[in-house]
Amino acid sequence: MTNIPKRLLYLTLGALTTVSLPGLYVRAVAQERGRAAGPPAGGAPGRGRQAGPGYLKLFDSNMPFEAHDLAGIWSPNGNGFGGGGRCRDCGDRGYSFEFPEFTPAGQAAFDKNIPSYGRAKDSDDAKAHPEEHIGRRRAQPPAFGNDSYGTCNPMGMPRAILYPDPVEFIVLPDRIYQHFQWGYGLRTIWTDSRKLPAADDVDLPRWWGYATSHWDGNTLVVDSTGYDERTWIDYFGFPHSDQMVLQERYTRTNYDTLELKMTVTDPKYYRKPWVAETKRMHLLPKDFIKSSGWAGLLEDLCAPANELEFNRVIRDPAGTGKPPVPPPGPGGR
Amino acid sequence: MAERTFLIGAAAAFVAALLPAGVQAHHGTNINYDRSKQWTAKAVVTEFKYVNPHAQLYFDVTDDKGQVTHWSGELLPNPAQLLRNGWTRKRSVEALQYGTKITVTVAPSRAGGEGVLVLKIENENGEELLAGGPNAGGPEPPARGNP
Question: What is the ipTM, given to two decimal places?
Answer without folding.
Answer: 0.73
